[in-house]
């Protein structure tokens, strides 16, 4: 009998359990009311007197070993669960991290900024809600000037003096008012025009306008600057300037870049001509310089302006301007690899 109990002690010592249920079953088997220990205890009275002492000792040893085993297994289980609470399962695979992407308008805007900052242009910004002076009057567009109709304007409530800027030329007016020449600045930003929304135009879009004012700035400087820009951005080195009209520049021109006629798409987007219009430009009108506190006898300059959406549509072959504003992930995710 004593050997049997010693066998149990060895079994208890080598026992191991991972779950609460296993430990509980073990506890009941040894320490429960109808458990092995109680069986032995009830045997006690039948043990011959000379063996009682030893029997008592081993049976007590079995009891304390079993008790200690149950306690240590429970402690271990609790400890594991605590660690899980803090760290989770340390062996599980990592969660995949979704990498976001820049919006194509931001990508193109940053490219344009980079190209001009390489030749000394800084970036200036201004308010989207403007007054009449900065958006129109200072730019040689006095009240009732017919050219105001070129840009259909959103006014703020009933105050005709406050409006949503129709171009970022307003930022250039502010810049000239607050800085002395030489001036080399580009003004990226959001602009607003009351136009019907279609695949080609939207009532909210983005522009980058540029301004260069110094002594003896000529039309040749303007042309070289734009040529440098088109080479950098499109990798195209043929441009042409067509006479145009803007109230704030004289002379004014529209810039076309020679896109080529290599693919079917080239034919379609250039309407079979190979040429694409990309921006407006001209020599700053002396009246504008005067309005902004710069002496036109001493200084001259050029300005240009382009729509970021239009450039992005050309670069990425996007057919519909509305895609920029729908925030469809299937569209946006295509720009993950760009910048
Ligand atoms: N402000 C003009 C527009 O929004 C663009 C432009 C800027 C043209 C500077 C000439 C010179 O259409």
TrEMBL record:
Stored PANTHER family: PHENYLALANINE--TRNA LIGASE, MITOCHONDRIAL (PTHR11538:SF41), PHENYLALANYL-TRNA SYNTHETASE (PTHR11538)
Subunit field text: Tetramer of two alpha and two beta subunits.
Pfam families attached to this UniProt entry: Phe_tRNA-synt_N, tRNA-synt_2d
Species assigned in the record: Christiangramia oceanisediminis
Statement: the UniProt record of this protein carries the keyword Nucleotide-binding: yes
Span of domain Aminoacyl-transfer RNA synthetases class-II family profile: 108-326
Main location: cytoplasm
Keywords: Aminoacyl-tRNA synthetase, ATP-binding, Cytoplasm, Ligase, Magnesium, Metal-binding, Nucleotide-binding, Protein biosynthesis
EC number: 6.1.1.20
Gene expressing this chain: pheS
Family matches, as InterPro entries: aa-tRNA-synth_II, aa-tRNA-synth_II/BPL/LPL, Phe-tRNA-synth_IIc_asu, Phe-tRNA_ligase_II_N, Phe_tRNA_ligase_alpha1_bac, Phenylalanyl-tRNA_Synthase, tRNA-bd_arm
Record: residues binding Mg(2+): 250
Cofactor: how and how many bound: Binds 2 magnesium ions per tetramer.
Name of this protein: Phenylalanine--tRNA ligase alpha subunit
Gene3D superfamilies xref list: Bira Bifunctional Protein, Domain 2
Keyword Acetylation: no
